Every structure is written in structure tokens, then in C-alpha cells.
Amino acid sequence: MNTLNQITFLLFCLVFLNLTYAQNSKDQARSTIVVIDPGHGGKDSGATTRKGIKEKDIALGIASKIVVLNSKLVENPLMLFLTRYSDTLISLNDRTQLSKKLKADIFISIHCNQAINRTASGTEVFIYPKNEVQAEESAYLGFTIQKGLVDILGIKKRGLKYGNFQVLRDNHDSRATVLLELGFLSQTDEATYLSKEESQNAIALVILQSIIKILGV
Question: What is the pTM (predicted TM-score) of this model?
């Protein structure tokens, strides 16, 4: 996996910015609600790298950067909400309840993976569709995000999978729901990559671009 340097990232931002402003459906975008769920938090650290960097912090870092990029690059065309904005533990039920109360169109849960086999690597996307429409929309969102992570950032592809996770299973009202496993913190190169600020910015931008692409705004 190649680390994205600052010049490449800035050029990517400019291309993304031009594509976004070329769209003509800003009013529709403002009515779309997106919930980003940074996994774990508080006493639940999730996976941990050999250097002690925690999954909960990486997930929150990426989610927070999505909010910042959305505001700075595209004049805030999407209504974005996080299930947590700090290092706090939010129950899985409360995460899905927030999505339901907001009547979110899109729900994305952000995670990192871990395995006993330290050579395991790559990004996985999980969906748990409750109907045909949600199956189609969730698969499209998941495929689009994963394609960006693979084609633009060079992260290994592990595919789109069916996952019986509570945040997906109980989120049956959203148009599209996905759980992202962005890489393995047990694998040295991916742990290093995911821990870097510039990498988190690049991942956040790919996720934001993917959301806007599937909405067609």
C-alpha cells in the first residue's frame, strides 16, 4: 500500500471539488441526512496497534475529518451527524436510535479490523439489508466506497459481505447502511497507514465523495 503524499492529496481534493461544484442539485442534498458512526469509544477501545494506537481513535478521527471536509470543500451540502463527537461509549442501541430519530438516509459505521493472523490485510464492507431497495442502495454505497479505497488509495480489497451486526440489523429505516472495516491494525503496514493524519484525511475524502456520488448531488 502506498502512502498518499501531500501533493497527491491536494490534487485529489481539487479534482473532487470541481466535480462536486459541477452538480446542480444542492437543495436536494441539504435535505439528505447522513449519520456517521465512529465505532467503539470510551472504555471500549476496539482493536489496538502494536504501538498502542486504538481503533476508537482512528474511527473518530476519520469521522471528524468527514465533517470538516464536507464543510470546507463542498459548502456543506450534506446534513452530517456523528453518533459520538468525543471519546465516549455510546450503546449500539443508542446509535441506531439516533439514526431512526433523525430519519437518516445513509448510515455508515467506521471500524478497523484485527486478526490473529498478522498477515491478514485489506478493507471489507458489510451490509445487512432488510428489503430489496436497501439491499441495492447499501451494496452500491459499499461498492463505491471500497472501489475508492482500492483504486485511489491502494488498499487491498476483501469484498462486500453480509454481516449480522446490530448497528446494521436494527437500522432498517435508512436507505443505505454499511459497516466499513478499513484495514487490519494487527498488520504492521496497515496499522501505520491508518494511524497517520494524512491517510485519515484521504479515507475521509473517499467516503464523502462516495456518499455524494450515490446521491447524485
Answer: 0.87
